[in-house]
């Protein structure tokens, strides 16, 4: 099964952009990449997803490498409310989400 | 609009007992998925139901079962509870089977087995 690899934790200053990396070198050509985040004591929250091209929405941007072996979630201006565990996930051929351990994002005021 | 609601929020059970967890999806969502999240780890897929039929099953023992009702709400049942079943159980709903536009998660049921 394909899996994703993320750093355990990252720190960023408030009001600055944050780039969260993810490696998914074994992903198949038709598997989507999804990002969810989980705030303390809450269920995960959908952030963004993509297949081959870069994607933008009101929460974030997703940059997918041309070879699809890695991607980067970009928060353009982090706030304290963005402190959470961010999961880079691939959706397998059965449309199920395969989760890793995620990156804990710490925002410093 | 109400989001995905799960009940109960917390539960303490004894080893060997049985537990039933409940989930109400967002109105209009026909797909319900169940996940187990052990402390410090990402969620693990247990089941997906769509239009009252099982459409996916993760690598969990037969002690775990689920069903979806005509109103699209769902129940997760776990028999013969083990200490290792202690976890946060999450329910997620989506409009379609594939969930490409994102799954909406509830806040979960925290199950403690003693």
* Structural Rg of chain B: 13 Å
Which chain pair shows the most residues in contact? A-B, 21 and 24 residues
What about the largest sheet of chain A?
6 strands, mixed
How many E-type strands of chain A? Answer: 10
Strand-residue fraction of chain A? over 45%
Task: Give the helix tally of chain A.
Answer: 0
- What's the tally of helices of chain B? 0
Beta-strand proportion of chain B = over 45%
Which parts of chain A are unreliable, with pLDDT below 50 for 5 consecutive residues or more? none
Terminus-to-terminus distance of chain B:
36 Å
Distance between the termini of chain A: 39 Å
What is the H/E string of chain B?
EEEEEEEEEEE
Summarize the entry for a quick read.
The complex is a heterodimer of chains A (109) and B (114). Chain A is mostly beta strands.
Secondary structure elements and pairings:
The complex is a heterodimer of chains A (109) and B (114).
Chain A: E1 9-13, E2 18-23, E3 32-38, E4 45-50, E5 55-56, E6 61-64, E7 70-75, E8 84-91, E9 97-98, E10 103-108
Parallel strand pairs in A: 1-10
Antiparallel strand pairs in A: 2-7, 3-4, 3-8, 5-6, 6-7, 8-9, 8-10
Chain B: E1 5-7, E2 10-13, E3 19-24, E4 31-37, E5 44-50, E6 53-57, E7 64-68, E8 74-78, E9 87-94, E10 104-105, E11 109-113
Parallel strand pairs in B: 2-11
Antiparallel strand pairs in B: 1-3, 3-8, 4-5, 4-9, 5-6, 7-8, 9-10, 9-11
Which features would summarize this protein structure in a list?
heterodimer, A: 109 residues, mainly beta, six-stranded mixed beta sheet, globular, B: 114 residues, seven-stranded mixed beta sheet, four-stranded antiparallel beta sheet, 11 strands, 0% helix
Tell me about this structure.
The complex is a heterodimer of chains A (109) and B (114). By secondary structure, chain A is an all-beta fold. Chain A contains no helices and ten strands. In chain A, strand 3 (32-38) and strand 4 (45-50) form a beta hairpin. The radius of gyration of chain A is 13 Å and the shape is globular. Chain A starts with 8 loop residues before the first strand and ends with a strand. Chain B is an all-beta fold. Chain B has no helices and eleven strands. Chain B has strands spanning 5-7, 10-13, 19-24, 31-37, 44-50, 53-57, 64-68, 74-78, 87-94, 104-105, 109-113. In chain B, strands 2, 4, 5, 6, 9, 10 and 11 form a seven-stranded mixed beta sheet that branches. In chain B, strand 4 and strand 5 (44-50) form a beta hairpin. The mean pLDDT of chain B is 94.
